[in-house]
C-alpha cells in the first residue's frame, strides 16, 4: 500500500496519521467501565476512497484494588481510642470511592467512606476488650473499582 498523508478519524474525533503500511493507532484512558462499540473511519484522499470499519466491541473492566490496614497504636489500652486506617490502592491510578467496613473477626465494628484524595477510610473505637483481636478492612468497590480486603491485623488491647 502506498504511503499517504490522509488521516484516520476515530469516533472520539482523534485523528491519527497512517503509517507506511496504511495503518493508524489510537489509545485512550478515558473509556468508562462497560462495553463500547469502536469503529474507525478513513476519510479518504485524492487517490483513495474513504471507508468505515465494522464495529468492534471494547470491554473495559473494573480495575483491581488492594486494601491495607494499620492501627494508630498497637498495643492499645482498654477504654482508650484506637484508630484503624484502611488505604485502598488502585492498580492503575484513579480515585476509588465507596465505603470500607471494619471487622473484628466476623463482627462488624463500623464503616467509613473512602476519601477520594487520600484513598483512606478511618474508623475509631474505644470499645475493644482486653485481648488480641483480628481486625480486617473490606473495601466494597465502586463503579470503577473492584472490592478487596485487607490482611488480618492482630490488635492487642492491654488492661
Question: In percent, how helical is the residue content?
Answer: under 10%
Total domain units = 2
What oligomeric state do the depicted chains represent? single chain
Total count of helical runs of at least 4 residues: 0
Cα end-to-end separation: 81 Å
CATH homologous superfamily (4th level) name of the largest domain? Immunoglobulins
- Average pLDDT score: 89
Q: Tell me what the CATH architecture of the largest domain is.
A: Sandwich
Number of strands: 15
Q: Kindly identify the CATH topology of the largest domain.
A: Immunoglobulin-like
Shape summary? rod-shaped
SSE string, helix = H, strand = E?
EEEEEEEEEEEEEEE
Low-confidence stretches: 1-11
CATH class identity of the largest domain:
Mainly Beta
Fold topology:
Elements: E1 7-10, E2 14-17, E3 34-38, E4 40-42, E5 51-52, E6 56-60, E7 65-71, E8 76-77, E9 82-90, E10 99-104, E11 107-113, E12 120-125, E13 131-139, E14 148-149, E15 153-158
Parallel strand pairs: 8-15
Antiparallel strand pairs: 1-2, 1-4, 3-6, 4-5, 7-9, 9-12, 10-11, 10-13, 13-14, 13-15
Amino acid at each position: 500500500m502506498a504511503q499517504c498523508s490522509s488521516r484516520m478519524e476515530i469516533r472520539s474525533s482523534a485523528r491519527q496519521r497512517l503509517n507506511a503500511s496504511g495503518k493508524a493507532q489510537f489509545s485512550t484512558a478515558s473509556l468508562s467501565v462497560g462495553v463500547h462499540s469502536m469503529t474507525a473511519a478513513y476519510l479518504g484522499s485524492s487517490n483513495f476512497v474513504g471507508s468505515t470499519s465494522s464495529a468492534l466491541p471494547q470491554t473495559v473492566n473494573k480495575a483491581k484494588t488492594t486494601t491495607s490496614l494499620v492501627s494508630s497504636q498497637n498495643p492499645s489500652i482498654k477504654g482508650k481510642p484506637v484508630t484503624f486506617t484502611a488505604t485502598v490502592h488502585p492498580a492503575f491510578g484513579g480515585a476509588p470511592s465507596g465505603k470500607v467496613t471494619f471487622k473484628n473477626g466476623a463482627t462488624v465494628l463500623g464503616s467509613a467512606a473512602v476519601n477520594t484524595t487520600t484513598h483512606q477510610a478511618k474508623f475509631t473505637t474505644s470499645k475493644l476488650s482486653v485481648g488480641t483481636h483480628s481486625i480486617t478492612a473490606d473495601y466494597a468497590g465502586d463503579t470503577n473499582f473492584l472490592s478487596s480486603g485487607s490482611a488480618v491485623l492482630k490488635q492487642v488491647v492491654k488492661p
